[in-house]
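Worked problem 6 (solution included).
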Amino acid sequence: MEVRQVTSDEWERFRDIRLRALGDSPFAFGSSLSREREQPEAAWRKRITWSGSGATFAAVEGDVWLGVAGVYPDEDAPALVWVVSMWVAPEGRRRGTARALLDACVEWARVRSAMEARLWVTTTNAPARALYEGAGFEPTGATQPLPSDPSLEELELRLPL
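Solution. The predicted structure is:
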């Protein structure tokens, strides 16, 4: 398995895995399958680079994409980055795929001299929370309703870099 940065020319592969993620784990994302299914090519290309300021990483084995994760700097606090949209396909789980994606995002942030990484995790997503806390992320105490399903709550986690 290799983790590498996704290019905007790979927008169709990215779209396919993102839609698969939203179908598999709707409780884990702030968006929905129906909303993102309708996005045009330009939106997918823009999303890969987070409007030119961030990056998307893919875990790839041969020609199979096992997972993705994104990272981008906070618009108001450039020393802060957000890790977002992480998902690993069932066939990539329990193989270190998620940790490799998370490490790639954190390394991207460190190279850009970020001082802190943050993310939101649904409180009911125990495996994701265990992954993040195992990598050193700690709760900030902040919570919010999940944008795509306000009946669920998200917890903010942070990692000093």
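Discussion: Helices lie at 11-24, 33-37, 41-49, 97-111, 126-134.
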